[in-house]
Write a structure and sequence with these properties.
Oligomer: single chain
Shape: globular
Helix content: 10-25%
Order of helices and strands: EEHEHEEEHEEEE
Strand order of the largest sheet: 5-4-3-6-7-8
Length: 179
């Protein structure tokens, strides 16, 4: 296990790059099977999901499209509890199969808000695809069909996830070490 220091915090490797790649491939295989003939629109939630979305889409073989939405609810290592849409969606969603690509679902508030917002645009279906889910922290009932990892309620960085905008570039997942 290796350790990294980001600003004032220490993190330790918890999930290897190889494990992440294998799980992303498994998710893509399931999506390819489940969404054949659907021409899904993948909506990647920025900033955290950009690496996951890129790797996932490189494994998708069905015809598809991708767009991006930016929602914010974090400040430092804690959720503010308030979700605000920063960058919206311009595509026509009516009758479309939507796959939300998220880096992590913890309380579920962000995802619930996004699903409610998308629902007003009359898509055929909405699916959640996340790299990480924290089942013990979920406060909203969500149907998370595609999750690469279920993790404890730890703060993590790497592979697109950040601590105060730092650490997104790390190839592995690192968990905060209590000092």
């Amino acid at each position: 296990m290796s350790r990294v220091r980001i600003k004032d915090k220490t993190f330790e490797t918890s999930i290897s790059e190889a494990e992440i790649k294998a799980r992303v491939k498994e998710l893509a295989d399931r999506l390819n099977k489940d969404l054949a003939d659907k021409n899904p629109l993948f909506l990647a939630v920025l900033n955290g999901s950009f690496i996951f979305a890129a790797d996932l889409l490189r494994e998708i073989i069905v015809p598809c499209e991708i767009s991006f939405v930016k929602l914010a609810s974090y400040q430092g290592v804690t959720s503010t509890g308030k979700v605000r849409e920063v960058l919206g969606i311009n595509e026509d969603l009516k009758g479309r199969t939507i796959v939300i690509v998220e880096d992590i679902v913890d309380t579920g508030r962000t995802m619930k808000r996004m699903i409610e917002s998308l629902g007003t645009r009359h898509p055929a279906s909405i699916h959640i695809c996340t790299l990480f889910v924290k089942p013990d922290k979920l406060e909203e009932p969500l149907d998370i069909e595609y999750a690469a990892f279920s993790i404890p309620n730890d703060f993590i960085v790497g592979y697109g996830l950040d601590y105060d905008q730092q650490g997104r570039n790390l190839k592995e997942i690192y968990t905060l070490v209590e000092e």
